[in-house]
Design goal:
- With 330 residues, the protein is of the alpha/beta class.
- It folds into two domains: 2-181 and 224-250, 3-Layer(aba) Sandwich (Rossmann fold), CATH 3.40.50.1440; 258-327, no CATH class.
- Helices cover 32% and strands 12% of the residues.
- Strands 3-2-1-4-5-6-7-8 form an eight-stranded mixed sheet, with helices on one face.
Length: 330
């Protein structure tokens, strides 16, 4: 396993005390073009400030372009779990975005959060751009920092809040990394209801909230980077092009609005059943996280209604109105 952070993080940075136990597997990606610490391994980007050193935010920025130009040098192994720890500073997503399309034989895991709502709009725009494609991830954890802010003591300042977030995520980190180590049915999302990584395909069926408060406190795996031998460069099974394309097209993808999509589709199924007098029950999913918006439970319910509708004469079937653009925002 490898952990990547940047020298620009507000939460995940070289001074975060919770990262010290992972020093053997942690790399600081130095976006500003100079080594920032001797405590951890550093990967120094060739970025050179121009003029006053001002830079844009996002994939058109000089910092990102400099990193992207040497991204392949950051990929030194195969069949590794690579964990990107990103925070409310969009530039912390640069390593993920630079590597996401060139890491076919590695397993990518992203821990991300949006900018704070009162930060400049350019950061929000850049964040959306940098997480626009999550299709190559094996796992995704979305920490909604703005919901945490809503519940935080209004009498305390921003430094106190960032300290709280640092402690909250730091205490969760061993649990997160252990969960990643034990993933066997990717892609997955981190569900805050069960505090587990849940298969996007399994969804509802994989959620168990009975032990949701039991967090791991220590890593359950060797803190070392995997070294691939020549025989492990590629999987032993080589699908043909058509199988690979089919797998990529049908692969579930984590969505920030997954819970919203799930609720809308479930509500539409309930309306469809009621309009056609079909006995039908649907348990609400307890998931709290960036799911795919649909899962095996959703598919079973849809199949049941499809079969029930086929027993009703076509002219007697009732289809409730559904405007995807207004309901889902498509």
């Amino acid at each position: 396993m490898r952990i990547l952070i940047t020298d620009t993080g507000m939460i995940w940075n070289k001074d975060n005390p919770f990262l010290e136990k992972y020093k053997d597997i942690l790399t600081v990606v130095c976006l500003d073009g100079k080594k920032v610490t001797d405590k951890y391994e550093c990967f120094v980007s060739p970025y050179k400030p121009v003029g006053l050193g001002m830079d844009n935010v996002g994939i058109e920025s000089g910092r990102f372009k400099a990193l992207a130009s040497v991204a392949k040098k950051l990929m030194i192994g195969y069949h590794e779990d690579i964990v990107f720890l990103a925070d409310n500073e969009p530039s912390t997503l640069y390593p993920y975005y630079a590597l996401k399309d060139i890491s076919e034989y590695n397993h990518l895991h992203l821990v991300a959060m949006p900018p704070l709502r009162f930060e400049v709009n350019a950061k929000t725009t850049a964040f959306k751009e940098l997480v626009s494609d999550l299709s190559n991830l094996d796992s995704f954890l979305f920490y909604d920092i703005n919901k945490k802010l809503d519940k935080f003591d209004k009498g305390k300042g921003l430094d106190d809040f960032l300290g709280f977030v640092t402690d909250d995520l730091g205490n969760m980190l061993p649990h997160i990394l252990n969960g990643i180590h034990h993933i066997n049915e990717p892609p997955c999302f981190f569900d805050f209801a069960s505090m587990k990584y849940v298969s996007l395909e399994g969804g509802f069926d994989d959620i168990d909230i009975t032990n949701s408060r039991q967090l791991a406190t220590e890593p359950e795996f060797p803190l070392a980077r995997s070294i691939s031998t020549l025989g492990l460069i590629a999987d032993p099974f080589y699908p043909d092009d058509s199988e690979y394309v089919k797998d990529r097209v049908e692969r579930p993808v984590a969505r920030f609005d997954g819970k919203k999509i799930c609720n809308i589709l479930r509500d539409q199924r309930l309306k469809l059943a009621a309009a056609n007098n079909i006995p039908f029950e649907s348990e609400e999913c307890p998931s709290v996280g960036p799911c795919a918006g649909t899962c095996e439970k959703c598919d079973r319910e849809a199949d049941f209604l499809r079969e029930a509708l086929e027993k009703i004469p076509r002219e007697k079937r009732v289809y409730p109105e559904f405007d995807a653009e207004s309901e889902v925002g498509l």
